[in-house]
Amino acid sequence: MLRFITSRLLQSALALFIVITATFFMVRFVPGGPFTAEKAVTPEILRNLEAHYGLNKPLWQQYLDYLGSLARGDLGPSFKYPNRTVNEILGDKLPVSLELGAWSLGVALLVGISLGTLAAVRRNSWVDYSASGFGMMGISIPTFVVGPLLVLALAIKAGWFNASGWYGPADRVLPCLVLGFAYAAPISRLTRGGMLEVLHQDFIRTARAKGATEWRIVTRHALRGGLLPVVSWLGPGIANILTGSFVIETIFQIPGVGREFVNSAFNRDYTLVLGTVILYAALLMALNLLSDIVAAWMNPKVRLEA
Amino acid sequence: MTTPAATVSAEPVEQGHSLWQDAWLRLRKNQLAVFGLWALAAITVLCVAGPWFSHYGYEVQNLDLGASPPSAAHWLGTDTLGRDLLVRLLYGGRISLAVGLAATLVALTIGVVYGAIAGYFGGKLDAVMMRTVDIMYALPFAIFVILLMVFFGRNIVLLFVAIGAVEWLTMARIVRGQVMAIKKMEFIEAARSLGYGRRRIILRHILPNILGPIIVYTTLTIPGVMLLEAFLSFLGLGVQPPMSSWGVLIKDGAEKMEEFPWLLLFPGTIFSLTLFSLNFLGDGLRDALDVRSSKD
After folding, report:
1. How many domains does chain A have?
2. Which residues in chain B have their CB less than 8 angstroms from residue A190's CB?
3. Average of pLDDT values for B149-177?
């Protein structure tokens, strides 16, 4: 197990390094700098600005400097918000996006797992068919259609919620439901598939023969194996939820990382773009690692593959 | 019973069915898949041919009219600039469908080549290639696509390539798994003992035998690709005006839905209908071609 974790850890570190390097040079090689859009900056001021941010040094020097400060956890100053560091900006925005993501994931797991389990236990019944119909809706009606429609119906027409903003608990309901239901669909599909496979196995028959109740069979015996596909999906799935929240943040005007990221890319705020990419990549690698470890813990067969 | 139908169904017993005929018969029994097929055909024909029969251009403005609800003159109404929504939907559909097909083609090519190489050669090479895929699965790729679109201008060819470069991973995994299963079979050994090269074996002997899964997952990739295009357009990073795609129309509609709900409703409906159809068809093909849904 330890070897398995170490090898995955090394892989993640390597991948993260590649992401950092690739993004750093991609951002630098694009036409247009952070100060080109500025209202007619004189060459002199431009030189001062560049000197201030170290942009006049050779590229490899900038790269090494960046890696150096990164190692100390410093993502550097923002180019577009003078006096603010990238750490501060992300520190403001990240909690919002994480909260949105966490609630949505909760909704997705709750709805997806219950629906998938019900569909597997009552296979080929109306429950199964409506679950797969629901799953089809989840992958075919995008959040940027459902979201605005719900805003129109429940916020603007019915007046139950605010159409946008992120202040009280009521403001969490619509965004998290929209994002959560979108990802409940793949989870319910995976759960159903995993549960169907497990429910056929001998140990389930044994449990049934020993007189265990259906509830106990499902929750204590089957779910542990049946949820394996869901656990493996979680790493990439959370990546999807976090990028999916870009659209949700746009629709509901939530001050999260997503909106900030798109703006910073438009503004060519190098350090903010880099910081966001690195933060998300690191976050996702960590989550992926975690979902791999949990999957291995749940199923020794996976562990042996490493 | 001596109805004509009975005699027809008795004949194929002598003729025998090919795999593809079998699959076609099974697909025809799946009502949802048949619905998907017809809906897709109808939407495609409408988008390609429809605009020729309309006397409204997709950028012809009528500012006096402004946004108007559906009427006899404008069946789906007009947008705030007085442009006919139906015509814009059909033109937008051309772009959305074209992006869907072209980007899927990119993803298909990369995925099949990558998966076939990893699966055929196996061993260390395979291990490295598939670990790379695993790692790439975990990357926030949509973020890179956003960066690409912002930095390198929002042109449509780049859009194809960027989306295609993201969506090939699943295809690579599936092709690899299939190739690994096929390459152990005797007819491959026979081909090898006849002295055929690897290229010929992969292209002529292995790939035709895994065409089923490739077709199924190509069909299922298209909706993912179209979603990504609409996602980018919704963020203002995809197709640029005056060109439009369904994503752009949904974005415009969402901004103006409070006063003019039909601007959101119609683009959202046709886009979802297309995705439904593609997913139904893909699922139907999977059942008809008996492709197992496991990843490897």
Report:
1. 1
2. none
3. 82
Q: Which of A30, A140, A143 to mutate to test the interface with B (most CBs of B within 10 A)?
A: A140
Residue B214's CB is within 10 A of a number of other CB atoms, namely: 20
CA distance A266 to A271: 13
Flag if A239 and B138 touch (Cβ within 8 Å).
yes
Q: Which residues of A touch B (CB under 8 A)?
A: 11-12, 15, 19, 23, 26-27, 30-31, 136, 139-142, 144-145, 147-149, 151-152, 156, 193, 235-236, 239, 242-243, 246-247, 250-251, 261-262, 265-266, 273, 276-277, 280-281, 284-285, 287-288
Q: What pLDDT, on a 0 to 100 scale, did the predictor assign at position A70?
A: 85
For tokens 């949904």, name the residue. B250
Mean predicted lDDT score pLDDT of chain B: 81
Q: What is the pLDDT of residues B8-60, one digit of tens each?
A: 444 445 566 777 787 788 888 888 888 889 999 999 998 888 777 776 666 66
Q: Residue B227 is part of which domain span?
A: 99-245
Specify the amino acid at residue A275: G
> How many structural domains compose chain B?
1
Bridge partners, residue A85, by sequence:
A77
A109 pLDDT higher than 50: yes
The whole-model pTM stands at 0.81
What CA–CA distance (Å, rounded) separates A244 from B121?
A: 37
The domain of A208 spans 94-305
Q: Which two tokens mark A20?
A: 């950092």
